[in-house]
Amino acid sequence: MRTPTRLAPATVPLLLLLAACGGGQDPYSGEGGGALVVGSANFPESTLLAHIYAKALEAEDIEVETQLDIGSREVYYDQIAQGNLSVFPEYNGGILFYLEPEAESGDTQETNEAVRAALPDNLAILESSPAQNKDSITVTSETAEQENLTTIGDLQRVAGDMTLGAPAEFETRPQGVPGLADTYGVEFGGFRPLEGNLLVEGLRGGDIQAANLFTTNPAFTTGDFVALEDPENLFGSQNVTPLINKEAVGQQARDVLNAVSAELTTETLIELDARVQIDHEEADVVAADWLAEAGLD
């Protein structure tokens, strides 16, 4: 198995400069036998997924380059549309709400149908994996047991005495605090803007009693936390889904990426994220290990 060529983390000017090179031939367009360019956003799980995609493609003798840690969706989406990037690990609900901010939450199939309808003609999503990284309302295992909490709706009777920790935008976005009130009748007594590991520390320390954690957060591997069930699907679907530039990505590469998606589960992604974010293993090594275990190397 060949090791993919790794480029330095990209910025938009660098991507545009690369696209301009080559005497009018876009080196990343997929025409003329050019390499597929697999990108990632600037957070660890996205980088891990990009390595998984790249190494799976390389295992089938498809030439691959990587552009990692590019930035947010507002930065990288245009680069895919312009052909500077070929493949990107996305989340179906995330890309839907980027394209259609007023879209309603749905299951995986409904979300993918809506995404396909909203994408421009030159872009496509492939098959979604069972793996999801979605919003949750999470409490400690102790709180869940003491208050008999299983679903978000169970919080209705106790939320008034609790402080919710979440990123600042969660307080106003439709699927955040307003959605909790409208969908479940849950209104917290307080709100504290926190992000990342500060949410986990806040829960552990008791500064907050509930937190908006993503469901692949490695903290769930400790058994100390419980993500409450969302039976009304307030948070929608957030399946890991390859987003591709259709002109750049041929059928062989699509088949490879679909095979990866078929094997990737939420439980697997939590374990892999923990190896990268807690054990500090290199993402490319973790990706290679999983592909070997899944028989995709």
From TrEMBL:
GO CC annotation, single: ATP-binding cassette (ABC) transporter complex
One Pfam family it belongs to: OpuAC
Gene Ontology MF terms: transmembrane transporter activity
Domain (ABC-type glycine betaine transport system substrate-binding): residue spans on this chain: 36-293
Domain of life of the organism encoding this protein: Bacteria
Gene3D superfamilies per UniProt: Osmoprotection protein (prox), domain 2 (3.40.190.120), Periplasmic binding protein-like II (3.40.190.10)
Coiled-coil intervals, chain numbering: none
Name this protein carries in UniProt: Osmoprotectant uptake system substrate-binding protein OsmF
Species: Streptomonospora litoralis
Organism phylogeny: Bacteria, Bacillati, Actinomycetota, Actinomycetes, Streptosporangiales
